[in-house]
Design the sequence.
């Protein structure tokens, strides 16, 4: 979905940190950064990335989410990466044999929003491509966040898991209803203009004999008006439709070039 | 997020069709199929895919979402791909100069769910990697769905756009609250056991002189009990904590190997 508005500048709002634990592939770091940028996150932290940092493949995969990559911080351990946070969720699709609360993305985002709203720091832990998070990392989290996936196909790519949680955060924030553009629809015309259309059309149809019998006319008119009301036409559209009616109605008044002259 | 439960079998529920218009890269078809599978969608339709069908790169990128790829249907035109549907949304991140309603993913998913609930067919159109959807394709849709993205970074990969809409569909469906696993938390112990812990601890602290002055004791006790109540400990955890207290309390009763013998 192309459509970035280059006239807009990036806004760095208070938002949750995304912590990738020992990511193996630069591509995943880049696509995670892009997913964050799509929904306004920017605090990306890497714990001991396998291929070091900076990483060219991450840059290539980030589709110009450079403002996120430029702010990346690298840590030696997960403990250091979350040291400044007071609310940490571990994202995992695997049940852990642990006395740890499990919540869905809606509840997780709700808690993060109120926590950050109170001026505190919150973050989300994401595990390794192969093995996910270690139990030690889940243990130092306040709760587990997992997604309402299809149990028979529960495996998400890291960037996709980041995307869903970034989306939930934004959806529930005051930006959730703020779409990048609205519809350019003109407002519906006043009913008087709609009545003008109806009477114009029905007058023509009276002449063409559309209404088979007088007793059927009222119900047929109601059905027509019901159908034509549904479109909530603008004044311009009503003018156009009346032009269409007139054009068809006048057809017989004009000589039809395709019609054969009658034999004389 | 690894965690697919291989004991579960795929369920094909009535769900929206995902229509990719002239996708250029097989990878994107595969990752879109995977995103669909994560949230239980399965009806994938391709309009004139650039590299034909089947596509090995799609299979490689789908991470075993074979049940979706096996059902793929290919159409020559978008009109044919939506012919059996009575509700079609065009996904786009670009404003169109068109009198077309624009809704967000929540409203879009809400309409799709009620439409499908009424037994009718619904689908979502996704555009080309480079140019998105043509205006002709947007025109034949009932409305535009766009995401509440960061305006300054609005470009989503096709699979990511599919993922968000598949997630919204599932989130609002009766499966939205169904997480693949719950927490294994034992229930909180009865208050009598918690009182036993409090009295045990406070009794020890009375002996150690923790409560500096008698008049401070009640408030200090309340603060301690407040902190220890918050964890809603299980019976097992309370037994463990009482063991901890006893162990510390008894330390002086045992000879301390590190302590020097007093000079005699």
Sequence:
């Amino acid at each position: 979905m192309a459509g970035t508005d280059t006239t807009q500048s990036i806004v760095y709002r208070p938002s949750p940190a995304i912590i990738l634990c020992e990511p193996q592939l630069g591509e995943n770091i880049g696509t995670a950064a892009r997913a964050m940028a799509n929904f306004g996150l920017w605090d990306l932290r890497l714990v001991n990335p396998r291929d070091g940092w900076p990483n060219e493949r991450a840059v290539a995969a980030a589709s110009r989410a450079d403002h996120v990559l430029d702010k990346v911080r690298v840590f030696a351990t997960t403990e250091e990466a979350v040291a400044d946070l007071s609310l940490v969720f571990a994202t995992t699709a695997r049940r852990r044999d642990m006395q740890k609360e499990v919540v869905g993305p809606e509840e997780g985002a709700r808690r993060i929003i109120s926590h950050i709203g109170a001026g505190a720091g919150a973050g989300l832990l994401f595990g390794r491509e192969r093995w996910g998070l270690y139990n030690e990392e889940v243990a130092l989290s306040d709760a587990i966040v997992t997604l309402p996936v299809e149990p028979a196909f529960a495996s998400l790519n890291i960037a996709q898991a980041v995307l869903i949680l970034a989306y939930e955060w934004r959806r529930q924030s005051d930006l959730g209803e703020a779409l990048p553009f609205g519809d350019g629809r003109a407002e519906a015309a006043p009913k008087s203009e709609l009545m003008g259309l109806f009477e114009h059309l029905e007058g023509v149809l009276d002449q063409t004999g559309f209404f088979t019998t007088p007793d059927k006319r009222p119900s047929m008119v109601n059905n027509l008006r019901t159908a034509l009301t549904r479109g909530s036409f603008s004044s311009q559209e009503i003018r156009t439709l009346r032009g269409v009616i007139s054009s068809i109605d006048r057809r017989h008044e004009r000589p039809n070039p395709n019609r054969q002259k009658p034999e004389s």
Observations:
- Residues 17-172 of chain B form a domain with the Alpha/beta knot fold (CATH 3.40.1280.10).
- Chain B touches chain A through 75 residues (CB under 8 Å).
- The two ends of chain B are 66 Å apart (CA to CA).
- The longest helix of chain B spans residues 191-208.
